[in-house]
Write a structure and sequence with these properties.
By secondary structure, this protein is of the alpha/beta class. The protein has helices spanning 16-29, 46-50, 52-68, 78-90, 94-104, 120-135, 158-161, 171-178, 202-218, 229-237, 239-246, 257-265, 282-287, and strands spanning 2-6, 32-35, 73-75, 117-119, 145-148, 182-184, 223-226, 254-256. Strands 2-1-3-4 form a four-stranded parallel sheet. A four-stranded parallel sheet has the order 6-5-7-8, sandwiched between helices. Helix 3 (52-68) packs across helix 4, helix 6 (120-135) runs parallel beside helix 8 and helix 9 (202-218) packs across helix 11. The radius of gyration is 19 Å and the shape is globular.
């Protein structure tokens, strides 16, 4: 399987461990990642709020690059997934298409609207398949209770993205079960992490993140895992602030999606970038008999 790799911004800078883990997992599952250094940012929802056509044009350019290579596009960020998928959908509006085409023509870009956008979670569950992944498990995550945290853009707007229920999804939990972990179901798994308002209302954002972590913990989670690096920032990098906002310590390890997959397939914590996390992962790793990262 060959796909155009769209890592997004965070995985190339502050969240490099996500890129490390993605490459390890894809390499071991036979997914060839084709890189395009000229991909640009998806706009992260901010441009969309100010200028919808500009945001669609920005993402149509990315989609056209993959289309020209004859490849589907792989994302590892829920927000990138949402922006690129919505651009594809909005491009079907003749009025939007005409304006976007007009914006792309001067730079020699033409988009026919054929690129499929798939998040890594979808590729693992639907294309690789759970039986194939389960067959490659070398270190079952038995004894580890994991609360999946989907975030907003991977599932919403559900009617437009047309993947799975925004209220009762199960793909991530199905994957966790195939890896040997015990999935933890809790209400907060499909709610916001607070990141969109982190730089406007930081106290409110921290309170939101703290509430979601508390919810997962109350339902028995030893760790959380997310398919979105922005959610990871809120839940891991800003967990100290979240703890202050809710008035007690949280101590919740938070993994990226490919990190839990990589652990089950036999990768070392170092290969998956776990030493880069701000919240220690020792307790969670101990549940599956793996040494803590140096």
């Amino acid at each position: 399987m060959k796909m155009a790799y769209y890592p997004g911004c965070v995985a190339q800078e502050s969240g490099k461990e996500l890129d490390m883990a993605t490459r390890w997992v894809c390499r071991n599952l036979g997914i060839e990642l084709v890189e395009f250094p000229n991909f640009s940012c998806c706009g992260s929802g901010f441009i969309d709020e100010a200028n919808e056509v500009l945001n669609v044009a920005l993402n149509a350019r990315n989609l056209a690059i993959a289309e020209r290579a004859g490849l589907d596009l792989l994302t590892i960020c829920s927000t990138c997934q949402g922006m690129l998928s919505l651009a594809n959908l909005r491009y079907t509006d003749p009025k939007v298409k005409a304006r976007v085409d007009g914006a792309l023509k001067p730079i020699g870009i033409e988009y026919r609207g054929t690129t499929k956008v798939k998040h890594l979670l979808q590729v693992l569950v639907q294309d690789v398949g759970l039986p194939a992944i389960k067959a490659k498990v070398r270190r079952p995550l038995q004894g580890l209770k994991v609360g999946a945290f989907y975030g907003c853009h991977l599932l919403r707007p559900a009617d437009e993205l047309n993947w799975e229920s925004a209220e009762e999804p199960h793909s991530f939990e199905d994957l966790l079960a195939a890896l040997g972990a015990t999935p933890v179901y809790y209400r907060g798994r499909v709610m916001c992490c607070g990141f969109p308002i982190q730089f406007v209302k930081p106290e409110t954002a921290s309170r939101i993140a703290g509430h979601q972590i508390d919810d997962a913990k109350a339902h028995g989670a030893d760790a959380m895992a997310t398919p979105c690096p922005l959610c990871h920032i809120s839940l891991d990098a800003y967990q100290n602030q979240a703890a202050k906002a809710v008035g007690h310590s949280l101590d919740m390890p938070v993994f990226h999606l490919p990190q839990v997959v990589g652990l089950a397939l036999g990768a070392s914590p170092e290969e998956l970038g776990l030493p880069r996390h701000l919240v220690p992962t020792e307790a969670a790793l101990g549940k599956i008999g793996t040494r803590a990262p140096a």
